[in-house]
Amino acid sequence: HANRTNGIDKNVWVEFTQLAAAYSKVNLGQGFPDFAPPKFVQEAFCHALNEGPMMHQYTRAFGHVPLVKSLAKFFSRVIGHEIDPLEDILVTVGAYQALFSAFQALINEGDEVIIVEPFFDCYQPMVKMAGGQPVYIPLRPVSDGSVLSSGDWVLSPEELASKFTPRTKALVINTPNNPLGKVYKTEELQMIADLCIKHDVLVISDEVYEWLTYDGAKHVKIASLPGMWERTITIGSGGKTFSATGWKVGWAISSGHIIKHMKTIHQNTVYHCATPAQEAVARGFEREYEVFGTPESYFQQLPAMLHHKKNKLASLLKSVGLKPIMPEGGYFMTADFSSIKVDCDDPSSKDEAKDFRFVKWLIKEKGLATIPVSAFYSPEHGKEFDKYIRFCFVKEEATLDAAAEILKKWS
Ligand code: PMP
Ligand code: GLN
């Protein structure tokens, strides 16, 4: 086998999705809605399938033309920069492939990539597969007391500045963040942007949860800050945007001089993505363009619905002695389980991190699937953060109620 597969064979989604399928009654683990996407995108998909033979054939390699046009129209207004649909966008197989193409296209052997912890786990193996060197900087809770909100987790500007070296090529951020739900404020993004401009570093900004913010938090695109369009790759996901994670339509938006190199990777790997799914996402964005900012917009309806689910899950977790960190965005909630006293020393997981052992116990013994948070850290820092587990709340009321039943029984 090739050396590049060494050390990246373990994957939290593969492991915990299998465990959840085998043992759990209620799954608040892997992040996906257990309810249907909105009618208008389901209808758009059906419409695409019945639109004639061409909708079942290959389309443009770098993105179905109706989709890149609707993404350009929509995001030009959001970013405040005129986006060229053919030059500045690459449509990919989910946000995953946008990330992969970015690292492959931009990172050389030995380049350093700064990754903010906790991070969506695939950034690390993707940087390594490109020959890069991940350099980690943790978000830290402002105090060790009662940390109530993901907004209390911050970067130290001095610590971040110290991570830049002449070999730093890129920095990855994720806002709203998975798993914490942190939504970076303009000042925080400006601090990051200033350092990246000073050191001539690219920013890969994973914004798959961009429409999901709560309690007044506002999602800001780092690409919209002065001087950042030229050096930022903004990544989005049709699956997260329209609650259809199985469609696997994603995109990267950046300046044409960057996208050009990502196109080279894309044309020589997957070539292009499923045509009807792209057509459906295009129609979804056309519709959202028309109703943007009104209560009819799914980008208002989904967060409104999730706001309620988030609060419901938080009260439930508190009622059994878990300490949730309230997310400002996204669809996950992280909770401190250190006050829960259980014997979860299953012999098969003896050498594992505390949170991995606890989650395995929760799945196998109690039938409730969650995700251990140290999976979102580098091996060096995971130990400091192994008292947290992640719950997904983009779920039907009945699913959350079933989770409540389980939690209440063992508390
Ligand atoms: N980035 C983050 C932060 C995620 O949580 C996910 C999981 N959906 C992805 C990227 C990958 O998205 P997709 O399913 O569109 O490939
Ligand atoms: N992004 C989703 C999550 O964080 C799913 C990731 C995956 O299944 N690979 O749960």
Automatic annotation (TrEMBL):
Aminotransferase class I/classII large domain residues: 25-406
Keywords (A to Z) from UniProt: Aminotransferase, Lyase, Membrane, Pyridoxal phosphate, Transferase, Transmembrane, Transmembrane helix
GO BP annotations listed: kynurenine metabolic process
Coiled-coil zones: none
Catalytic activity: an S-substituted L-cysteine + H2O = a thiol + pyruvate + NH4(+); L-kynurenine + 2-oxoglutarate = kynurenate + L-glutamate + H2O
Pfam family for this entry, one: Aminotran_1_2
Cofactor annotation: pyridoxal 5'-phosphate
InterPro entries in the record: Aminotransferase_I/II_large, Kynurenine-oxoglutarate_AT, PyrdxlP-dep_Trfase, PyrdxlP-dep_Trfase_major, PyrdxlP-dep_Trfase_small
GO CC terms, sorted: mitochondrion
Pathway recorded for this protein: Amino-acid degradation; L-kynurenine degradation; kynurenate from L-kynurenine: step 1/2
UniProt GO MF annotations: cysteine-S-conjugate beta-lyase activity; kynurenine-oxoglutarate transaminase activity; pyridoxal phosphate binding
Gene3D superfamilies in alphabetical order: Aspartate Aminotransferase, domain 1, Type I PLP-dependent aspartate aminotransferase-like (Major domain)
Transferase is among the record's keywords: yes
Keyword match Transferase: yes
Record note on quaternary structure: Homodimer.
PANTHER family in the cross-refs: FI04487P, KYNURENINE--OXOGLUTARATE TRANSAMINASE 1
Family affiliation: Belongs to the class-I pyridoxal-phosphate-dependent aminotransferase family.
Name of this protein: Kynurenine aminotransferase 1
Species, as recorded: Takifugu rubripes
Taxonomic lineage from the root: Eukaryota, Metazoa, Chordata, Craniata, Vertebrata
Gene name for this UniProt entry: kyat1
